């Protein structure tokens, strides 16, 4: 592009010489519409932290001119995940035993793009396009069949880049639900028992009940055993099971109670910090006032707004699922449990991401002003040489009720 001073080089990130330049670009790139509340992310000195726990990952940077100034970056990861389901060969034999074993997951090698940043002073130069194309080359070299990305529906520049220039189709529109962590513990209903499952029991439950859910990671055991996974919690009606009487996931699923729910918690607080910027003086004052009133009258248990205008931590709830007429109520109890866990760890918010069609979302407390009703996931098939398989072209499939959001990609 032009003379030597305008040449752009895309290469792999080198921590020893790129760290300052990457952090500088991150500081100048806000997430959110200009002129409104924006969310800034502090990666705590580790630019690769958001993909580091994936089975395979890469970070690229774009540098420009003789000074080799960092003007952009992109991260990518690859895993194997569920793209559909097919009828099990022995389904007819087992149909009378357990209807859930009629289908088995169809897996695909799936790539994910996140953290695309281009310096504000170097936009509209094709740098973002170059970074995406280079990352897709790495995806193909490593056998990925599909690539997907997530962006704010209101981020027109990002939507245009991926859908009009890079060939991504609008695929799913999940909801990001965020709830503040208040100064007081959330009371858990006395009608609910919450049981903490060890990773092996959690794996059995997830594989038997949720492995056919879109985006379910085949290496769910790696997720559950990761040091950032704070636990998997099962809610059942009081009087059915306790931690001491829980028979194990296999026996539990063979004869479950009428209603139950499950979720896991991921500790993003040790990976990155968030900060809300762009709030007006009035909004900051109102938030501060709620905290002052709460401190003055703690017995009222007022929902004071936590300090979100300074760096704060996040816990992410994933693997949310359940069955039965009271599953929504049980999910609400689990969200309260997760809130109290986040409070004990000093977090500012708890969050999750679920399908816009997810029936259990009714049990997930959240503030609309902090949440995103429609996040945009774009999908692209990376090669035409792949077999159509049991689900055909995944990019053309209809959405299911649920998705499984991998916490390693938050």
From TrEMBL:
Would you indicate the residue range of the signal peptide? Answer: none
Ligase as a keyword of this entry, yes or no, is no
Any one Gene Ontology MF annotation carried by this entry is: acyltransferase activity, transferring groups other than amino-acyl groups
Span of domain N-acetyltransferase: 8-187
- Which domain of life does the protein's organism represent? Eukaryota
**UniProt entry tagged with the keyword Disulfide bond:** no
Which UniProt keyword terms apply here? Answer: Acyltransferase, Transferase
Q: Which InterPro entries does the entry mention?
A: GNAT_dom, Plant_NAT
Q: Which family does it belong to?
A: Belongs to the acetyltransferase family.
- PANTHER family cross-referenced by the UniProt entry: ACYL-COA N-ACYLTRANSFERASES (NAT) SUPERFAMILY PROTEIN, N-ACETYLTRANSFERASE HLS1-RELATED
Q: What is this protein called?
A: N-acetyltransferase domain-containing protein
Taxonomic source organism: Carya illinoinensis
Q: What is the lineage of its organism?
A: Eukaryota, Viridiplantae, Streptophyta, Embryophyta, Tracheophyta
């Amino acid at each position: 592009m032009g003379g030597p001073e305008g040449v752009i080089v895309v290469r792999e990130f080198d921590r020893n010489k790129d760290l300052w330049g990457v952090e500088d670009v991150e500081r100048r790139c806000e997430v959110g519409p200009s002129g409104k509340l924006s969310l800034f992310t502090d990666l705590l000195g580790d630019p690769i932290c958001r993909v580091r726990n994936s089975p395979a990952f890469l970070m690229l940077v774009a540098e420009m001119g003789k000074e080799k100034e960092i003007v952009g970056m992109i991260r990518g990861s690859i895993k194997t995940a569920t793209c559909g389901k097919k009828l099990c060969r022995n389904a007819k034999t087992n149909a009378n035993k357990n209807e859930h074993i009629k289908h088995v997951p169809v897996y695909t090698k799936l790539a994910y793009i996140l953290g695309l940043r281009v310096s504000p002073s170097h936009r509209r130069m094709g740098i973002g396009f170059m970074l995406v194309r280079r990352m897709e080359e790495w995806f193909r070299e490593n056998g990925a069949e599909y690539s997907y990305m997530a962006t704010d529906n209101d981020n027109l520049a990002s939507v245009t880049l991926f859908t009009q220039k890079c060939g991504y189709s609008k695929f799913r529109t999940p909801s990001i639900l965020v709830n503040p962590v208040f100064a007081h513990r959330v009371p858990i209903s006395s009608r609910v028992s919450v049981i903490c499952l060890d990773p092996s029991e959690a794996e059995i439950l997830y594989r038997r009940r949720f492995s056919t859910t879109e985006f379910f990671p085949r290496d769910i055991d790696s997720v559950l055993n990761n040091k950032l996974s704070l636990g998997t919690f099962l809610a059942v009606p009081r009087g059915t099971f306790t931690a001491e009487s829980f028979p194990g996931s296999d026996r539990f699923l063979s004869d479950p109670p009428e209603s139950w729910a499950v979720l896991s918690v991921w500790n993003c607080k040790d990976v990155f910090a968030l900060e809300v910027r762009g709030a007006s003086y009035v909004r900051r004052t109102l938030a501060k006032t709620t905290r002052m009133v709460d401190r003055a009258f703690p017995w009222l248990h007022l929902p004071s707004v936590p300090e979100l205008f300074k760096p704060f931590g996040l816990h992410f709830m994933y693997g949310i699922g359940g069955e039965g007429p009271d599953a929504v109520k049980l999910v609400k109890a689990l969200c309260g449990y997760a809130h109290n866990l986040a409070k004990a760890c000093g977090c500012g918010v708890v969050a999750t991401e679920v399908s816009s069609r997810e029936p259990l979302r009714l049990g997930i407390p959240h503030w609309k002003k902090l949440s995103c009703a429609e996040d945009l996931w774009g999908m692209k098939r990376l090669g035409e040489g792949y077999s159509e398989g049991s689900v055909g072209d995944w990019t053309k499939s209809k959405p299911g009720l649920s998705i499984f959001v991998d916490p390693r990609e938050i």
